[in-house]
Design brief:
Number of helices: 6
Shape: elongated
CATH architecture of the domain at 91-272: Sandwich
Radius of gyration: 27 Å
Structural class: alpha+beta
Helix content: 10-25%
Number of strands: 26
Strand content: 25-35%
Oligomer: single chain
CATH topology of the domain at 91-272: Immunoglobulin-like
Length: 497
């Protein structure tokens, strides 16, 4: 007969083991993410359910659950910037010194977007850094600094383009004079995602730097790189000296290389970019008359005191709403007053059931009066994308984040047709329909027809809770859950919401 003391010791030992040892299929990325914390907690919950089924109720079971949570949270560091669907995504800033000047060098700076489904939209990127010494920028092509700074110590007609210790650079606008342009410049700071168009996922500018040293041993890498795209969200690492980049001559017969090359990697975090989520998902199906709306307050709640919190659809104030930048330099959404308060809503409707196929209609609605979403994209996770037969009016690309398993699709608009999602109003939506082939064992029951996750412009959208999904007629949604498991699950939600 096992007594309570032995059971309690087993629980605590098992808890400590789970918290300090990885799951069997763990990878370094998994260990550094919040998924490991969830794994520990649910393993603990499963153990507790098993004990209850055996009729064992140790006195300190709640302490064991708390210990699991504490050890899991302190043993590993969460990395919010890690993207499961795009683990290799980043923005790389490459600084190539092409030639030397009497007091410095000429460099080409290239911003390359390697994110599969995250792009930089208007008003475009803003790149900043701090000089390591007392460098100045004599001249620029393809870009310009936002301020000149104090250049009073320079006399005559030779005045630098920028004398600031920490310059801020923006892209030139389309239509700039040809003598101010270089390759991959002058797009207003807009950079397409790598998955949509690799050729447009790059932006460049050239600068002539003075007071910087004239050899590989005397120049210094700039520090404290920052990237606004166009708002916060990106964190840049230190500049790294790498082997000089190589390129082909104009006749393609000779390989040449730069004098020096530095690289800076910048990663994105949705938690830094937005205080609240930026999109939500609603669901419906032909077999159920109800519509599952976005969860209430998905992206915030209506304020009774702040007049600028949202705008009613038929409010006279709409006439005075114009797109513009706020004092912080970021485009603040002005959304239509809704129960979810999200700038973007994605609606997934299971439309038709055929003998061998089934059809879904997807509608993306813009509730933001201050933003036209250019080159938008949507990423959807659903196991039936392996059986996608046809898609209407959208572009489609399979991401395959798990190798041969095709359960993740990237959708975006067709150029000059629906690649721009207009601001809130009668034209503020785009639609498509997806036709899937039924595989063996397919069923509409238990929410199988609905997506696991949806991302808009790279940001994870708030999904309705699974128990709220439209159900089949006469389907029961009752579940049998242990009280202690429910408590642990609620604690997880409180920790990460």
């Amino acid at each position: 007969m096992i007594d309570d003391q032995e059971v309690e010791e087993t629980v605590i030992i098992h808890t400590i083991y789970l918290s300090v040892s990885p799951p069997p299929s763990a990878t370094p990325s998994l260990l550094s993410s919040r998924f490991f914390v969830l794994w520990v907690l649910f393993e603990q919950a499963a153990l507790q359910v098993e004990m209850e089924l055996l009729g064992l109720r140790p006195k300190f079971a709640s302490f064991a659950a708390f210990l699991a949570m504490l050890l899991a949270c302190t043993s590993f560091t969460a990395t919010d910037a890690y993207e499961v669907l795009d683990p290799n995504g980043n923005i790389t800033i490459q600084w190539d010194i092409t030639s030397w000047n009497p007091d410095g060098y000429v460099a080409v700076v290239t911003i390359q977007n390697f994110y599969q489904f995250r792009h930089i939209q208007p008003p475009g990127w803003i790149l900043g850094w701090t000089w390591a010494k007392k460098e100045v920028i004599w001249d620029m092509r393809g870009g310009q600094t936002t301020e000149q700074g104090d250049c009073s110590k320079f006399k005559g007609n030779s005045i630098p383009h920028c004398c600031k210790k920490s310059p801020t650079v923006v892209d030139l606008l389309p239509g700039s004079p040809y003598n101010q342009q270089i390759a991959n410049c002058c797009k207003g700071g807009i950079i397409t995602s790598w998955g949509q168009d690799p050729e447009k996922a790059v932006s460049s500018f050239q600068l002539s730097v003075g007071a910087a040293g004239t050899t590989n041993k005397t120049v210094r890498i700039p520090k404290n790189f920052t990237l606004m795209a166009p708002g916060p969200g990106y964190t840049c690492g230190p500049g790294m000296l790498v082997p000089p980049s190589k390129y082909l001559s104009d006749d393609k017969r000779r390989k040449m290389q730069r004098m020096m090359t530095w690289k800076v990697l910048c990663s994105y975090s949705q938690f830094i970019a937005h205080k609240t989520p930026s999109c939500c998902v609603s669901l419906s199906a032909f077999y159920n008359d109800s519509i599952v709306s976005c969860p209430t307050c998905s992206c915030g709640c209506q304020s009774s005191t702040e007049t600028d919190n949202c705008v009613q659809e038929e409010s006279p104030r709409l006439a005075s709403v114009v797109p513009g930048l706020d004092n912080k330099g970021s485009l603040t959404p002005l959304v239509q007053c809704t129960h979810h308060m999200c700038p973007i809503r994605v609606h997934w409707h299971v439309k038709v059931n055929y003998k061998d196929y089934w059809r879904v209609k997807v509608t993306i609605s813009n509730f933001n009066y201050r933003m036209n979403y250019t080159d938008w994209n949507l990423v959807v996770q659903h196991p039936s994308f392996n059986n996608l037969t046809r898609i209407f009016s959208f572009n489609y690309k399979s991401l395959n984040p798990y190798g041969k398993i095709n359960d993740t699709a990237m959708l975006w608009g067709i150029k000059f047709y629906n690649d721009m999602l207009m601001q809130a109003g009668p034209y503020g939506n785009v639609q498509t329909e997806l036709l899937f082939k039924k595989e063996q064992g397919f069923t509409f029951g238990k929410g199988w027809a609905f997506p696991h996750n949806i991302y808009f412009n790279g940001d994870n959208c708030v999904m309705p809770p699974p128990d709220a999904y439209p159900t089949m007629p006469n389907a029961s949604s009752a579940t049998d859950m242990s009280f202690r498991v429910l408590v642990i699950f609620l604690l997880v939600i409180l920790m990460f919401c």
